[in-house]
Amino acid sequence: MSETSSFYSKAKATEEIAQRFADLRPPLSAKAAVAEALRCLYCFDAPCMGACPTHIDVPRFIKKIASGNLEGSARTILEANILGASCSRACPVQVLCEGACVMHYQNQKPIEIGRLQRFAMDALYASGDLHPFSPCDLSGRETGKGVALIGAGPASLACAAELRRRGVRAVVFDARPLPGGLNTYGIAEYKLPLAESLREIDLLTQLGVEFHFETSVDAAMLAELEVDYDAIFLGVGLAGIKKLGVAGEELEGVVSALDFIAAYKCGDLLRVPERVAVIGAGNTATDAAIAAVRLGAREVHVVYRRGSEQMSAFAFEYEHARQMGVSFLWYRMPARIIGEGKVEALELVEVREREDGSLSPATGQSVLLEVGLVVKAIGQGTHAEFVQEMQGGKPAKVRMEKGRILVNRETGQTSNPKYFAGGDCTNGGREVVDAVADGKRAGVGMATWLGGHDGDA
Amino acid sequence: MATLETTFAGIRSLNPFWLASGPPTNCGEQIMRAFDAGWGGAVWKTIGAQVTNVSSRYSSLDWNGQRMVGFNNIELISDRPPQVNLREIAEVKRRYPRHVVIASLMVESRREAWHQMVSRAEDAGADGLELNFGCPHGMSERGMGSAIGQAPEYCGQITEWVKEKARTPVIVKLTPNITDIRLPARAAKGAGADALSAVNTINSITGIDLETLEPRPKVDGQSSHGGYCGPAVKPIALSMVQQIMSDPQAALPLSGIGGIGSWQDAAEFLLLGAGTIQVCTAVMHYGYRIVEDMCDGLLAWMRRKGFATISEFRGLSLPRMQEWKNLNLNYRVVARIHEESCIGCQLCYTACWDGAHQCIHLDRMQGGLEEPVKGTDPRFVQHQPNPQGKPAPAMVLAESMRRITVTPIPRLDLHDGGLNRDRPPLGRIPRVDEDECVGCNLCSLVCPVPECITMERADTGVARETWEERSARDQGQKEGEIWES
Q: Between B256 and A308, where is the model more confident?
């Protein structure tokens, strides 16, 4: 059964989490927003717009803030990015719009595009206005076509919005109880609170997107969907965090970073032990390490088998973690996890990098790190197996490469014309905004392929 | 040693900075504080039959976060009894004998009324009289203020009456709300005025409250047209001052007024022939204290330029203002973008395409034009925009929107996602086609980076020729005709 009631109302408000995870980038006041908007030069073919994967017309929405046309500002953002509110908070703007701001070239602070975008979107919520778009507003009518979208993450949501605006029925299936995928369950709470992700999706439901939760799509169901729908969108994301492959991994207190983040975001985890180790040095690892500090850990170690220069976390995330007191242990690998029933310590060996980039034990010496929690953040696996399973062992329905579903990047279409895909399962795991851009292109691509409205976006 | 001391129409002044007649010169207490702050003189808030003012009275034009770029008032002349003002004039002059106090006057258009007012003001000790023929609101409805300034014959008549009685210099203050300000100026001069002051405020409505639909300033749900002043009016004031000072029948010692708030503004009025300048709005915005830098900055500039006194540079820019027909048609400048300063905002590109002559292109990545065709006057020769068929703005934008970009992630991308923050990418730096450039200045004006776009002399190899000379040569045949036969 499709669910349409408010998702926002289902978010568990946890006072303690809200306090511990206060906004990293607090909202701008109305006066500050106008002052900041006035700094924008209004570049032509603005670099910020080009750097944004969804190509939001940044100068246009900023000038609308300056002119007091907040409704128009929000509409400008949503026109390009249906998850503009989430992205304003979750985006690594330092390497996207704000990183491209021309202000850098004259030694000035870049325009605070992320916070201005949030200001415009918050204003839309505060106004109580409906979503600026409506079903079929681009097609003028329902086309009678329907698409099943697997996964309720950002890619599917963006795709669904494009489909609905073009009169195509969009039915989303997800294994979790709430929509949003990693946008809801996986973004550090001090960037994007779970409730905010849901609030945005509530607006989307006004477009008539249908949802089926706690529904895992298997081969049999996929076969049914193929019959019932005119096309299928795969927005399945990546699989869980990879295994370490060391002894003791099954102990209580060894968790994946994604489960750890989802647990505190849902209010199911309010405290962590005094000492925590995070394995891996990507953005998820730094998110988890910072969360551990905010959840009361006194000592948090990030353990990485290579050096800081190979770390995949953004430089500003690394800086943030360091400022929060997180320590980084370079060239260390977990050898085993020790404990009686639950984690008590982590044994680390020192490694060195050979010239060819491979790792070898350095000294053979090992150190013992006393920890009560080990958070694994060594990257997510791919859904290669899942896609194989979906196919029920028959010849491949969609072509894959290195665990990613191959798509035409402009339309999102896979090797199987009836299947489209986008988001982490096609791009290997990037940002929310990348998933939105993928989903948007796929939504337009699908509507076009289905012979519906040609799409003007 | 440079000095700011100057003599204006026989009135000695410690410096050329006077407060204009207005709220900052409402009473003696204010004016004495202004003198303490460094003002050389003050024109008393206009004295006449006592009036009642409304509330509210002022409104402003704000622009892009800057407050009071333009300012408007519907306040009338002094609402204090004339005898109070006159008593305070006497007191100020007693305490500040070296400072200039000018009495601004406005009475009904009767000879006796003017005679009486002139005598009283002079008896109080005023150093000079300013006849307010400029106030554009309220008083004009009663046949005074700009109602006089707009009618040269009234202007001359009243000046005559005043001169019959006056022993001190008479300054006629002119309204800009007139087609040709030289006409009342000539009338005043013809009637014996000793000096002029220009300009008074300009008729205006600064804006409307879009919630209540009331124009500003609001008075019980209504408004009235007010007098506009502040930085926005300076160019209009400069133009009118120049017109007067370039007209031998009108030119007199002139006290320049209109949007002056800095020493640079003041220097500009002086260079166009003003002998003193008057300030009101800037003081209403920031207080009397602004005069300190006006004096300090002007003196420093004078020293730098080698001027010892105001009179050494007064009017020096006047000969450089010419009628258009006397400008050199064969002088040419072209825009040059200094790549090392460019930040890649491309405001010059969009401005040139939409607001000028389509001469700036985004084709550096394509190598630009390798061998531009050199002409002397591209618009004259080519008659068409974008003769090389370069991409128009919409095409440039569409290309960017089509481009698929992703968040740079170290793990997935070859580069580390670090952006070069020293210089913009070459493709974002516009290129001026110097052959197409008409030298209009627009790109250099919109460029947010100082000195990034300069206008460089391009030698046309053709001798100086003005339009007047050209039409005389062609006997008015070629350029005068609209259609080719």
A: B256
- Give the amino acid at B242: Q
| Neighbour-count burial of A407, counting CB atoms closer than 10 A to its CB (0-12 exposed, 13-18 middle, 19+ buried) | buried
Least Cα distance to B257 among B58, B424, B102, B376 occurs for B102
Q: For residue range A280-301, what is the model confidence (pLDDT) as tens digits?
A: 999 999 999 999 999 999 999 9
Residue A406 has a pLDDT of: 94
Structure tokens at A8: 């926002």
CATH 3.30.450.20 fits B6-316, yes or no: no
Query: Do A372 and A387 fall into the same domain?
Result: no
Chain centroid, CA B228 distance in Å:
12
Distance CA(A16)–CA(A266), nearest Å, equals 12
Choose among B344, B349, B393: nearest Cβ to A102.
B344
B324-400+423-473 sits in which CATH class? alpha beta
Structure tokens at A387: 């896609």
Determine whether the interchain pair A429/B412 forms a contact, defined as Cβ–Cβ distance below 8 Å: yes
Classify burial at A31, counting beta carbons within 10 Å of its beta carbon; exposed 0-12, middle 13-18, buried 19 or more: exposed
A247: which DSSP letter? B
> In the numeric block, which tokens belong to residue A3?
């669910």
Residue B348 known to be catalytic: no
Tens digit of each residue's pLDDT (9 = 90 or more) over A207-246: 999 999 999 998 889 999 999 999 999 999 998 899 999 9
| Alpha-carbon distance B427 to nearest alpha carbon in chain A (angstroms) | 11
In a domain, A297, yes or no: yes
Topology match between the domains B6-316 and B324-400+423-473: no
Averaged pLDDT for residues A123-142: 92
Task: Say whether both A370 and A262 belong to one domain.
Answer: yes
What contacts A5, CB < 8 A, 6 or more positions away?
Answer: none
First-to-last alpha carbon distance for chain B, in angstroms, is: 66
- CATH number of the structural domain spanning residue A259: 3.50.50.60
The full set of domain ranges for chain B reads: 6-316, 324-400+423-473
**Are A285 and A351 found together in one domain?**
yes
Q: Are residues A214 and A258 in the same domain?
A: no
B345 → closest Cβ in A43, A66, A99: A43
- Taking an 8 Å cut-off on Cβ atoms, the answer to whether B424 and A45 are in contact is no
Residue A197 near residue A7, CB atoms below 8 Å: no
For residues A49 and A67, state if they share a domain: yes
Nearest to A449 by CA among A210, A207, A168, A170: A168
We report the CATH number of the domain holding residue A56 as 1.10.1060.10
**Confidence class of residue B382 from pLDDT cuts 50, 70 and 90?**
low
A-chain CB neighbours of B65 within 8 Å are: 34-35, 38
Say how many C-beta atoms besides its own lie within 10 A of residue B211's C-beta. 6
pLDDT tens per residue, range A147-177 = 999 999 999 999 999 999 999 999 999 999 9
Q: Which of A44, A407, A431 to mutate: most B Cβ within 10 Å?
A: A44
CA–CA distance, A185 with A183 (Å, rounded to integer) = 6
The Cα angle at residue B21 between residues B17 and B26, in degrees rounded to 5: 110
Give the DSSP letter of residue B324: G
Do A96 and B407 count as a contact with CB atoms less than 8 A apart? yes
Q: Say if residue A55 is in the same domain as residue A98.
A: yes
For residue A38, pLDDT over 60 is answered with: yes
- Is position A6 within any domain? no
Structural domains in chain A (count): 3
Looking at this protein, which amino acid is placed at residue B119?
A: S
Q: How far is CA B59 from the centre of its chain?
A: 19
Whether A111 and A197 map to the same domain: the answer is no
Instruction: Give the domain extent around A123.
Output: 27-127
- Residues A158 and A262 both lie in one domain: no
- Picking from B242, B40, B189, the residue whose alpha carbon sits closest to that of residue B127 is B40
Distance CA(B274)–CA(A425), nearest Å, equals: 75
